[in-house]
Design brief:
Blueprint lengths: L5 H13 L5 H18 L6 E5 L3 H15 L4 E5 L8 H13 L4 E5 L3 H13 L2 E5 L11 H12 L4 E4 L21 E5 L4 H4 L4 H4 L1 E5 L5 H4 L6 E2 L3 H7 L14 E5 L8 H12 L3 E7 L3 H5 L6 E5 L11 H8 L5 E4 L9 H11 L4 E3 L1 H9 L2 H9 L3 E3 L3 H5 L12 H12 L2 E4 L5 E3 L5 E3 L12 H14 L4 H27 L2 H6 L1 H9 L2
Parallel strand pairs: 1-2, 1-4, 2-3, 4-5, 5-6, 6-7, 8-17, 9-10, 9-12, 10-11, 12-13, 13-14, 14-15
Antiparallel strand pairs: 15-16, 16-17
Length: about 525
């Protein structure tokens, strides 16, 4: 499903009227009716307060108030501004309220302290606040009476339903430049906005409900919209087919290259992610000194060893062994637990520079390549598929490519993909999966249970599993991130977000797949 900036949604809104003849008044009518339905169905409201600004969101609020009144629900409506400043559809709908519904609606207008005092009193008696103050086009901190009203709404222990987006959240970036409403439910129209999905705005949204108020599907599915979010139904479409007449070779071969004396468990976790994702054969190549400890962990994993240096990491001579091991692999993961031994630069360069199969570059391999990315550029030149999986810290080591990783992770992920011709999986609470074509996904699954050592190793193995089963690297990355997040949510139900460890997440991958299969 597409997700959009506020400007893109405004364009869809305009095209719906200009190209398809749907009046903007009808779109507002449908939006307000949807708010009313949620207010009555989700909250069973009997005493709502609707707080409106002067823009389109305020118009939606006026329509909502009318529909509530038609159901016999006494409603208080506060317009935080002068009625003569209203224009267009919102002015028309305000006029309808003011003239015809005085028996069911108490209407308060103005920016005065007296009106704010009435709002404060009304909020304390309400059973629901419907936030229609600001829309998705916010670009600066709320000021004046709007800021004061947001503070009042947040100060009372009353459920909040936000119209389109919580007031104070930037719909295009998820940034919160000042005060913002803390919603319990947000009803948005047409498509989710990027600001609903990215933090810190995502933490203000509560439960996100999507309703189509009359936008044509052809506009909502526009391929020129580059941002996406995966739904469960779309995840089902991506899942690799399990051929009933197949054998282990039918479901792909994954090679994990990793481990060191310092980090012997990382490649095991990556291998477990591969196995739980459905790969037919999973091989783990580790330095000789840790072979015995790794070989006894899971009998389903094939474990091979290669020469090590004095630090217990792969030596330069290990490259030849790695190239032989990768001969018939459908996907290779390099990086989990490699350490930062000085000799690894040559080893990693040889592997990336001579293997044409898809390679997932993770963890310590990224740290080495940040200093010397030549082999990444070589792979891009040859068109060999590469998936980079940095977290913010690892991405930041690549210098100017990731100069704004904390302030604009979407731009960073897309820049990585353009620079290195790679799929980029920029890991965080909202992982961004970007492709060189410009398309990208914002992953919305997962929770703090995934903020544990080893979780990235599990993810790299899971993505490799889907590549080995025939998915394109971009699709495999999108699906892998989605299922990995679901697995984290499921594991935390049993072990809590505190006690879940990465092995629990890996072992919950089949449950996540089952949830998708049941769609």
């Amino acid at each position: 499903m597409k997700t959009v900036t506020s400007a893109q949604m405004k364009e869809i809104d305009g095209q719906t009227s200009a190209r398809f003849g749907v009046p903007s008044m009808l779109l507002m009518e449908n939006a307000g009716a949807s708010l009313c339905d949620i207010a009555t169905d989700e909250f069973q409201t009997k005493n709502p307060v609707i707080v409106c600004g002067k823009g389109g969101n305020g118009g939606d609020g006026f329509v909502c108030a009318r529909h509530l009144a038609m159901e016999g629900i006494q409603t208080k409506v506060f317009l935080l501004g002068k009625s003569e400043e209203l224009i267009g559809d919102q002015a028309v709908n305000f006029g309808i309220l003011a003239k015809g519904f005085s028996g069911f609606i108490e209407l308060y207008v103005g920016e005065t302290d007296q009106n704010l005092g009435r709002l404060s009193q009304s909020l304390r008696k309400a059973d629901l606040v419907i936030d229609c103050m600001l829309g998705t086009g916010l670009s600066e901190a709320p000021k004046g009476v709007i800021s004061q009203a947001i503070e009042l709404v947040n100060s009372v222990n009353v459920s909040v339903l936000s119209c389109d987006i919580p007031s104070g959240v930037d719909g295009s970036t998820g940034k919160v430049p000042g005060l913002a409403v803390q919603a319990d439910v947000t009803c948005t129209f047409g498509l989710p906005k990027i600001g609903h999905l990215l933090f810190p705005g995502a933490s203000k949204v509560g439960k996100l409900l999507l309703t189509n108020v009359g936008f044509p599907k052809v506009l909502l599915d526009d391929p020129y919209i580059e941002a996406n979010v995966l739904t469960l139904k779309e995840a089902l479409w991506l899942l690799p087919e399990r051929i009933q007449s197949g054998h282990k070779g039918s479901f792909g071969k994954v090679l994990i290259i990793g481990g060191s004396a310092e980090f012997p468990g990382a490649p095991v976790l990556s291998g477990l992610g591969s196995l739980r994702g459905g790969s037919g054969l999973t091989t783990v190549l580790v330095p000789g000194p840790i072979y015995q400890s790794v070989a006894g962990r899971y009998p389903e994993m094939i474990v091979k060893m290669a020469p090590a240096d004095e630090n217990g990491a792969f030596s330069g001579d290990a490259a030849e062994v790695a190239l032989k091991a990768a001969f018939d692999a459908n996907c290779i993961v390099i990086g989990p637990g490699l350490s930062r031994s000085p000799g690894l630069s040559h080893f990693i360069g040889e592997v990336l520079g001579k293997i044409e199969a898809p390679i997932i570059v993770d963890a310590d391999a990224l740290n080495v390549l940040a200093r010397s990315p030549g082999s990444l550029l070589l792979r891009a030149e040859h068109g060999w598929p590469t998936i980079l999986t940095p977290h913010w810290g690892e991405a930041g080591r690549f210098g100017t490519v990731a100069s704004d990783v904390t302030t604009d992770p979407v731009a960073t992920a897309r820049r990585f993909s353009t620079r290195y011709g790679s799929i980029t999986v920029l890991k965080s609470a909202r992982t961004i999966v970007a492709s060189p074509s410009g398309q990208y996904y914002i992953n919305t699954t997962g929770n703090s249970a995934l903020s544990k050592g080893g979780s990235g190793d599990v993810l790299s193995g899971l993505v490799a599993s889907f590549v080995s089963q025939g998915l394109a690297p971009f699709d495999a990355s999108v699906l892998g991130c989605h299922l990995f997040g679901l697995a984290g949510e499921m594991a935390s139900k049993e072990h809590t977000e505190y006690g879940t460890i990465s092995t629990d997440v890996a072992n919950s991958i089949p449950k996540a797949i089952q949830e998708v299969l049941e769609q």
